[in-house]
Amino acid sequence: MTDTLMVLLGSFLLLMLLGLPVAWSLLTSMLAWVAYGGQWRFLPIAAERIWQGMDVFVLMAIPLFILAGELVNAGKITDRLIHFANVLFGWMRGGLAQVNIGASILFSGITGVALGDIAALGRVFIPAMVKQGYSPAYAAAVTASSSIIGPMVPPSLVAVIYGSMTGLSIGALMAATLIPGLLIGLVQMLLVAVQARRHNFPQVEMDRSPAVAVRATGQALVPLMIPVIILAGLMGGLMTPTEAGAVAAGYALVVATLVYRSLRLGTLGEVFQRSALFSGQLLIIVGCGAAFSWVMGMENVPRMVAGWIGGWEMGYLGTLLVFNAILLVLGMFIDPTTVIILFGPILSAAAVHAGIDPLHFGVIAILNLNIGLLTPPLGVCLFAAERIAGCGLGTLIKANTPFLLVNLAGLGLIAAVPGFSLWLPAALGF
């Protein structure tokens, strides 16, 4: 490793540990690399690389998907999804915890963002679960753990970024993540069922007559058409990801303002403002990450990593295990978007060289990094849920440990059986 590369990586890690935002940590470490190596001629090129990293047509899907999610939240469409989840899952013992997970699955088919899930559903479910007798830490643990389903069930912003960085078909990648995402939801529900029997959790008492079930289904079908539109458009080859995002946002706008009339035109400015702010925060990371990856290319990092991995000669299973460990550790310290931008192309190429299907590896990478959202020291989903519950981080980590273990078990199953990831894309002709 050269001294200039040590300056680049060391300054980036130091700035991250000091709490500087990711984008500015990337940018400042590149400036340190330029200054230390006297590579001043690269400054104009670095600025161009930042712009080129953001100036990718497929990334236009990101602000559009974010806008669709914001419109759903502002239009109170979430309430109808929660009522539908109550009808489907509330009859079980531990019903409200099951409804929490079920609502996350339904809601993730609209937003595809873990923190969006917590922001929208956590404020509803955590107080409701506490009121019904669950501990604040357990309510927060269920909410945080189920939120990682969001980036797995299409539309997934992480899948858009991963596909754009590695050259994979985004439609194929979203198809590949669907069944694993549902599987993670299933293992979490099984854990709650076991805990419910042990701790005698209550059911959700409500009218579940056929008439109520039909009405709840009808009310939920309208917002649930958003993921159907996206999936049908992408997987049927009718739309690009950007076009699917635009159609989804337009549909959400019509539903919220004209069908349900739950969103006033006067509040649209705030919705667009939040969407633009979130999109800008995400895309500046993408741009700076692309420039940082270019600098790592100048330092021959991809070739070095490929040489190391080739020298290990671990084979298929060994490579899979090591890459799972690497991604889990990276996800504990760095947010998924940054990891994908910096290491996604390198690790994906190495995985393909070891005989791992690129779609299968993409699913494993996305799930690994989402599990990192539940593990300290980063654990942003833990922090977000704890902020709502006010239960203390230590207590929450203890309550979340069983969920973390079953998520890891689900990850192991998905990694060991490629068919979970590859069957649907193959069936759809990708």
Automatic annotation (TrEMBL):
The chain crosses the membrane at residues 49-69, 105-126, 168-191, 212-238, 244-263, 275-296, 316-334, 339-356, 362-384, 404-424. InterPro entries: DctM (IPR010656), TRAP_DctM (IPR004681). One of its GO terms (cellular component) is plasma membrane. One of its GO terms (molecular function) is transmembrane transporter activity. It comes from the Bacteria. The keyword DNA damage does not apply. Keywords: Cell inner membrane, Cell membrane, Membrane, Transmembrane, Transmembrane helix, Transport. It is a multi-pass membrane protein. Its main location: membrane. It is found in: Cell inner membrane. Residues 9-419 form the TRAP C4-dicarboxylate transport system permease DctM subunit domain. Part of the tripartite ATP-independent periplasmic (TRAP) transport system. Belongs to the TRAP transporter large permease family. The complex comprises the extracytoplasmic solute receptor protein and the two transmembrane proteins. NCBIfam families: dctM (TIGR00786). This is TRAP transporter large permease protein. It comes from Pararhodobacter aggregans.
